[in-house]
Amino acid sequence: MSKQRSDSALDTKLCHEQGPLSQETRRLILDEVWDVGGSHFKVAEDVDAYDAYFQEYQRRYEQLPYPGLADWSHRHILVVVGLLKNVTRSRTAIIEDVRQALSNSVASRSEKVLEDAVALAANLWLMMDVHDWEGDQALQDFICARLLSAPVLTDSFRLPKAFNARNLGKVAGMDIFWTSDLTQHLTLRNDDTKVALFHHVSLLELHHASESKVLPQDFVEETFRTLALLVPYSDLKVRRWYKAIRKELHLDPKAGSCTYLRAGERKIDQFKYWRDRLIMIKETYDDHEPRGLVQFWRDDRKTAQWWTFWIAIAVFFFAVVQCTVGALQVYKAYHPSKDGN
Q: How confident is the model over 157-167, as pLDDT tens digits?
């Protein structure tokens, strides 16, 4: 009986949810979506780790136009997630599957509503925007085209330890745009002044543990390594920086706790799926010229040039001091004080 009452939380209409989802609702959704074992989400701390994930889920359905999915519940969305897991089905076929599966349980079954339901369910499961998923394209082919393509660029270099998200802003003046769309990870935008970083590491861990390998394990592990590179836990300044913005922007705390990358692991040829995007960011980072003394001070990408600049500044400063002292001495010589000193 208690199990029945517990499961009823999934029958709450999306439009009736007020405030954050309850822990029980979150646990039930996690259990339904992820086949990682029944004991995985037993304690409250396990569920609380997915705050950022559920905030994004709520933001998505709250932004849908009314009435839209007004008569849809969490359980209806979970049915769509289950249908999406047949990744060989096309978008058109999935939408028809949803129409048939829910023909007796929801009133809103227009094409637009079904498309919104599929998009919301895909975001809950994959954290991907699927609005440009073609009608006759299988979901696995869409994922492959967006994320799993072979790299094109063949550059060979090692990414320096200073190449991290904090320095992209401090040194190169690039803003970090934290995204909940995995397909946008490491993309440049706004004329290369912004870098998008996907922060939902907790979700990636679920994909890694899940028996449904819709995202290949080596892809998930490489995504972890991009975050270890750009938000290194071993760097105290970066760790403090991320902790401060994490609370303000409601980011996944695990994005700042990925394992440290050794020198060999920072070689660009160690990255397969994200190599081209990392190379583009590195080129933009290297091409940026510092503006103002503050950026010059922070910019130690070219050590010899940095020392040359600041030695020149120091020499200039001492020359100005010497000239000033000399001028004062000359003035004193021609304008002695009245007491003769």
A: 999 998 999 99
Instruction: State mean pLDDT over 133-142.
Output: 95
Q: Is the predicted pLDDT of residue 295 greater than 60, yes or no? A: no
Alpha-carbon gap, residue 323 to 329, rounded angstroms: 10
Q: In terms of Cα–Cα distance, which of 15, 50, 43 is closest to 29?
A: 50
The b/e string for 162-191 (b: 16+ C-beta within 10 A; e otherwise) is ebbbbbbbbbbebebebbbbbbbbbbbeee
Higher pLDDT, 26 or 332: 26
Q: At what angle do helices 111-126 and 51-62 cross, to 10 degrees?
A: 170
Task: Determine the average pLDDT of the residues in 31-51.
Answer: 70
Of 203, 175, 180, give the one whose Cα is nearest residue 190: 175
Residue 46 structure tokens: 């396990």
Residue 209 tokens read as 């543990």
Task: Give the tokens for residue 65.
Answer: 């136009």
State the residue for tokens 């290194």: 232
As a whole number of angstroms, the distance between CA 124 and CA 14 comes to: 14
Contacts with 174 (C-beta within 8 Å, 6 or more apart), sequence order: 168, 192, 193, 194, 195, 284, 285, 288
pLDDT in tens, 68-120: 788 899 999 999 999 999 999 999 999 999 999 998 877 667 888 999 999 99
CA distances from 162 to 156, 169, 231, 298 (A): 18, 12, 11, 11
Distance, CA of 181 to CA of 100 (rounded, Å): 29
As a whole number of Å, the end-to-end CA separation of the chain is: 101
Let me know: does 118 contact 134? Beta carbons within 8 Å: no
pLDDT higher than threshold 70 for residue 41: no
Q: What is the pTM of this model?
A: 0.82
Question: Within a 10 A sphere around the Cβ of 123, how many other Cβ atoms?
Answer: 21
Q: Is 127 left (phi over 0), alpha (psi -120 to 50) or beta?
A: left
Q: How far apart are CA 110 and CA 133, in angstroms?
A: 18
